[in-house]
Design a protein that fits this description.
Blueprint lengths: L4 E5 L4 E5 L3 E3 L2 E4 L5 E5 L11 H4 L9 E7 L1 H22 L16 H7 L5 H13 L10 E11 L2 E9 L5 E3 L2 E4 L3 H11 L6 H18 L9 E6 L2 E6 L1
Antiparallel strand pairs: 1-2, 1-10, 2-11, 3-4, 5-6, 6-7, 7-8, 8-9, 11-12
Length: 243
């Protein structure tokens, strides 16, 4: 549609960008809307003093999951709220990432087995839930007309690796290095193809996203009057870069 979502996956982070406008047909209804929602933030306000070597071995905690949505505003709010509820229920069940202790009657289990079970949802699990919700409404009168970019860190062989998941309004699902949604993707993907590197730093990735939005303001006939919203997701949570 007329909205634009961008995502870049780095070595230990994911950068998401979105325009801040909502339109109905040819009318602009909002120009300061945040389309990037934090689904899980287990430790809000925590400061970062660790490096990438130590964080890769930290596999006991719930990781932050962030989703950027474009499409029908009501459908986007409905789907993101549902995904957020799934994450909250999982946290309460296992007591990870919150101050709620989970009590069980099976006290004979070893502590190591309990620790291995205390894993919350990650970005890929949430992406599969979102894909199922979208695909289940394709043949109904209440089709979810939403496109998503889901970012977070997933566990692979006791290591935390960044993931960027691309889901369109028909339920197509891809794990990508960089991607975009909306008509603006026709302009942004060529810039991402040229400027992306797998070893990009955070500053380089953020500047590449800014460059995409600068080009959209020059070349795209429909652009937002307000600056885009850009957020970075890593092991320390989600931080707002530009709004």
């Amino acid at each position: 549609g007329q909205e634009t979502l961008l995502g870049i996956r780095g070595p230990d982070f994911v950068v998401l960008g979105a325009d801040s406008s909502i339109s109905s047909n040819i009318a602009l209804t909002a120009s300061n809307f945040d389309k990037i929602m934090v689904l899980v933030d287990p430790f809000p306000g925590s400061s970062s003093t660790t490096n990438s070597c130590t964080i890769m071995n930290n596999n006991k905690r719930q990781q932050t999951i962030v989703a950027a949505a474009a499409g029908d505003p009501a459908d986007a709010d409905r789907l993101l709220s549902l995904l957020r509820a799934h994450c909250a229920i999982r946290e309460f069940e296992i007591g990870v990432g919150c101050d709620v202790e989970f009590l069980t009657l099976q006290q004979q289990q070893e502590q190591e087995e309990e620790d291995t079970c205390k894993m919350g949802l990650d970005a890929e699990m949430i992406a599969h839930v979102a894909r199922g919700e979208i695909s289940s409404t394709l043949r109904s009168r209440a089709q979810l007309k939403v496109c998503l970019l889901i970012a977070g860190l997933c566990r692979r062989d006791n290591l935390l690796e960044p993931r960027l998941l691309w889901i369109d309004e028909y339920g197509s699902f891809q794990s990508i290095r960089y991607g975009a949604h909306g008509f603006g993707a026709n302009f942004a993907l060529s810039i991402l193809d040229r400027g992306y590197r797998s070893d990009m730093t955070r500053e380089e990735a953020m500047e590449l996203v800014r460059d995409c939005f600068r080009q959209l303001r020059v070349r795209y006939v429909i652009n937002s009057p307000q600056p885009p919203c850009i957020k970075c997701v890593d092991v320390d949570g989600c931080s707002l870069v530009m709004s």
